[in-house]
Specification:
The chain is α+β, with helices and mostly antiparallel strands and about 120 residues long. About 30% of the residues lie in helices and about 30% in strands. α2 runs antiparallel to α3.
Length: about 120
């Protein structure tokens, strides 16, 4: 026999959903392919890269992971997709390039990544 208090359970069954409107202006996507040591935690790296790309960096995600013959032992190959954008206008290449360069610098200088 089991007794469940629905008054206590239902608030957890339907969490509030937060919606964001679709961006009015298109983003600019740049990919970075690199190799990095396997002992570098990806989650920590992504958080640091996101910090260095603010406020223009909308999103950042790993789109490819490879570990095989062409990659040295103890390393892995990753591709990260970066989407840059603002809510009030379209960015120019001149605005995106310094931020993307800063992200690449953090990747190489702080995490020892080698851009491919």
């Amino acid at each position: 026999v089991l007794e469940i208090s629905l008054a206590k359970v239902l608030p957890y069954a339907y969490p509030e959903r937060a919606y964001q409107p679709l961006p009015k202006y298109p983003g600019i996507t740049r990919d970075i392919s690199f190799i990095i040591k396997t002992d570098n935690p990806v989650k920590e790296m992504l958080l640091r890269l996101k910090e260095s790309g603010e406020p223009l960096l909308r999103s950042l995600e790993v789109t490819d992971y490879y570990k095989g013959k062409q990659i040295p032992s103890g390393y892995r190959a990753l591709t990260i997709s970066c989407v840059y954008g603002l809510n009030d206008r379209t960015l120019t290449e001149e605005e995106v390039q310094p931020v993307h360069g800063r992200i690449c610098s953090v990747l190489t200088n702080e995490f020892g990544g080698k851009i491919r």
